[in-house]
Design brief:
alpha+beta; single chain; Nuclear Transport Factor 2, Chain: A; 4 helices; globular
């Protein structure tokens, strides 16, 4: 992934993601403000999905990504669009990961909305198909997405 925008907020988010994808946790967490809000799809969380909910600061972000890695084997993560203005940045695309518990694939369109101040993430909200995720993780029946 390469930074292609002159938006400082977008550049910060892309740099953060590059560190995450490379496993450079310390460098990624240095870009997270102490009171940053990280939201994994559902702000209210899910009792059986540890990386959904609201997390605070670098420690919370670390818990979010650790729980993600424990549940899903990362696969494809395609960024098809990105934009930023002022302190806001957004990216979107398509992903495909595999559940470590069930072996099922999880495919979804996704979007990420962030707010950046002074070179640090203050808000990070990742959107994805939560029904498809629940089926892939085995916490909801396949009929949940059959409609």
């Amino acid at each position: 992934m390469t930074t292609t925008s002159s938006s400082p907020a977008l550049q910060t988010v892309e740099r953060f993601l590059e560190h995450i994808f490379r496993g450079e946790t310390a460098q990624a967490m240095a870009l997270v403000a102490p009171q940053a809000a990280f939201v994994g799809a559902r702000a209210e969380g899910h009792p059986r999905i540890a990386f959904q909910g609201r997390f605070t600061g670098p420690e919370g972000a670390q818990r979010f990504f650790t729980a993600f890695g424990e549940a899903l084997e990362p696969g494809e993560f395609e960024i098809t669009g990105r934009f930023g203005e002022g302190e806001h940045a957004a990216l979107y695309g398509r992903l495909r990961h595999r559940s470590r518990a069930t072996g099922r694939d999880f495919a979804s369109d996704w979007a990420l909305v962030c707010r950046v101040r002074d070179g640090q993430l203050h808000f990070y909200h990742f959107y994805e198909d939560t029904a498809a995720l629940e089926v892939a993780l085995g916490v909801a029946p396949e009929a949940a997405i059959a409609a």
